[in-house]
């Protein structure tokens, strides 16, 4: 694959978790929501989010409803170990797209966070967060 195409594909890769987690983080900063301090998202860097996103893509494509996929941030370069699960919960159709509710769980430094977004499979085969 040419570098330009790889860059374009990389730029357009679904960031299910990154979008959800960054939105939570940005909202927390903007609203000064101190309760998010020392939670897994506060330790996550871009490469950690990508590891979680990659796990979400695999889980959405291969796991049955209720079946979990473990993930971790090993190799992401973060000195804080982060791990968790990705569990598709419910499959349905919306606007002609296959959609799934998904539970994302992250553990870091004795804390746990859970997010429950909905993702829909796009025509390019990538899963994208459904706006709520």
TrEMBL record:
Assigned keywords, A-Z: Signal
Pfam family of the protein (one): 17kDa_Anti_2
Highest taxon in the source lineage: Bacteria
UniProt KW Signal keyword: yes
Renumbered residue ranges of the record's region Disordered: 66-88
Stretch forming the signal peptide: 1-30
UniProt xrefs under InterPro entries: Anti_2
Residues covered by the Surface antigen domain: 30-130
Annotated protein name in UniProt: Surface antigen domain-containing protein
The organism of origin for this protein: Caballeronia temeraria
């Amino acid at each position: 694959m040419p570098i330009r195409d790889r860059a374009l594909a990389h730029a357009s890769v679904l960031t299910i978790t990154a979008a959800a987690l960054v939105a939570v983080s940005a909202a927390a900063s903007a609203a000064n929501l101190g309760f998010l301090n020392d939670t897994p998202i506060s330790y996550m860097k871009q490469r950690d989010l990508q590891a979680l996103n990659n796990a979400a893509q695999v889980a959405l494509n291969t796991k049955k409803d209720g079946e979990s996929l473990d993930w971790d941030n090993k190799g992401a370069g973060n000195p804080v170990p982060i791990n968790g699960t990705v569990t598709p919960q419910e499959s349905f159709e919306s606007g002609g797209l296959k959609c799934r509710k998904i539970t994302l769980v992250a553990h870091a430094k004795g804390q746990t966070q859970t997010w429950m977004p909905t993702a829909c499979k796009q025509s390019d085969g990538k899963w994208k967060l459904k706006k709520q």
